[in-house]
Amino acid sequence: MPQLSIIVPVYNEARTIRQILEKINSVDIDKEIIVVDDGSSDGTDKILRDINYSNLKIIHHSSNRGKGAAFLTGLANAIGEFVIIQDADLEYEPNDYLRLITAIKEEKRDLVLGARFQEGHHGLFMHRLGNRFLTSLLNLLFKSHLNDYLTCYKLARKSTWDTLNLKALRFDIDAEIVCKVLKKKLRILEIPIAYYPRTYKAGKKIRWRDGLWAIFCLFKYRVLD
Fold this sequence. Notes:
seven-stranded mixed sheet; 8 helices; 7 strands; 17% strand
């Protein structure tokens, strides 16, 4: 059993997929890399066919089903002791895996979040503002004290992931994960991570309507079991 399963949902990231996989593969940890190509149409699938690592699994969705659906496909195929989500762009630094795993072990927590903003906000202004508002709303609804629930880097044991019964298919997977962990009263730890935000010109996909959907989802998960 590998120590870490890294799930990489990818949709139309031909410009960065090769580079991020090289960075992931260079991290000195016993791992498997699970790439779920979520119906890419920009040649991402062709690039993936040329990448051959012994610890790499590539799964293809025939159509674009969403980040959550891609993560759930990866989770169903993961065999590592721990599982983490990795975006296919270059905003996050895979070398932070080691710090996250050390933290979850030493601090005996159920979920570790890689907080982008514990050491100061940076990146696109509207995204910083939106993240602050949504995290504050989550904290109000769940009486929590989180800094950055929308971070990509969420690390937990595979056994913990399996108890959450996740169903979200799109970007609302972030809200579902954290809300369910909070409702189960599991232990969360946030630690600072490196973060290199990209612009819309460089391929950033989050739009204002995703923020409206996130608000709805926070209320939904507060009410639902």
